[in-house]
Specification:
The complex is a heterodimer of chains A (114) and B (108). Helices cover 0% and strands 55% of the residues of chain A. Chain A is mostly beta strands. In chain A, β7 and β8 form a beta hairpin. Chain A starts with a strand and ends with a strand. The relative contact order of chain A is 0.33. In chain B, strands 2, 4, 5, 9, 10 and 11 form a six-stranded mixed beta sheet that branches. In chain B, strands 1-3-8-7-6 form a five-stranded antiparallel beta sheet, with no helix packed on it. Chain B is globular. The chains are: A mainly beta (114), B mainly beta (108).
């Protein structure tokens, strides 16, 4: 069974479009995250939710809007896509928000904006 | 917030050589975690260190947490081609912060 799953795995779209990435975890974890990994492999936190509540909101353009309908799901909607949004987006989950438990990462969504 | 600096960014070794990556912080860390990301894959948790001066081993991998809890290292003895990938340190208490990673390539 896949612990953290993301869809789609690949996403190719044009500038200006709006797209969504979905994430689901079946681990019963309270906390979920979105990360952006650029071409240099730097892994940057974007958002974190704990039990559907937003707890981390980094300096991310407001074109990015996360939504957590329940604690097992965390989706990411991106409006007006730009070339610089091209990256791999990882979803992750952990038992709680304290940072004292390991994070489980999804397989990633490779977004290419043309 | 807590930030971690990781060096080197890249390391190329001959198979059988040792490898070390270092993680440093200007502030005391509550914990440090290490992850490995294989090429084309996702980060996978390796280990967590919590105590001052802690040393943990996993086969050929040795993890250390400094006495002041401001630095950590991951050492691989006698690298193999299966060790290739990017190794990240991370401190997650309060905010999830990953180091910039060290990408290891191993020449057979």
């Amino acid at each position: 069974d896949t612990a953290v799953s993301q869809t789609p795995k690949y996403l190719v779209t044009q500038m200006g479009n709006d797209k969504s990435i979905k994430c689901e975890q079946n681990l019963g974890h309270d906390t979920m995250y979105w990360y952006k990994q650029d071409s240099k492999k730097f892994l940057k936190i974007m958002f974190s939710y704990n039990n559907k509540e937003l707890i981390i909101n980094e300096t991310v353009p407001n074109r990015f809007s996360p939504k957590s309908p329940d604690k097992a799901h965390l989706n990411l909607h991106i409006n007006s896509l730009e070339l610089g949004d091209s990256a791999v987006y990882f979803c992750a989950s952990s038992q709680d928000w304290t940072g004292l438990y390991e994070q489980y990462f999804g397989p990633g969504t490779r977004l290419t904006v043309t | 917030g807590q930030q971690v600096m990781q060096i080197p960014q890249y390391q190329h070794v001959q198979e059988g050589e040792d490898f070390t990556t270092y993680c440093n912080s200007s502030t005391t860390l509550s914990n440090i975690q290490w992850y490995k990301q294989r090429p084309g894959g996702h980060p996978v948790f390796l280990i967590q260190l919590v105590k001052s001066g802690e040393v943990k081993k996993q086969k050929r991998l040795t993890f250390q947490f400094g006495e002041a809890k401001k630095n950590s290292s991951l050492h691989i003895t006698a690298t193999q081609t299966t060790d290739v990938g990017t190794y990240f340190c991370a401190t997650n208490a309060g905010k999830s912060t990953f180091g910039d990673g060290t990408t290891l390539t191993v020449k057979p």
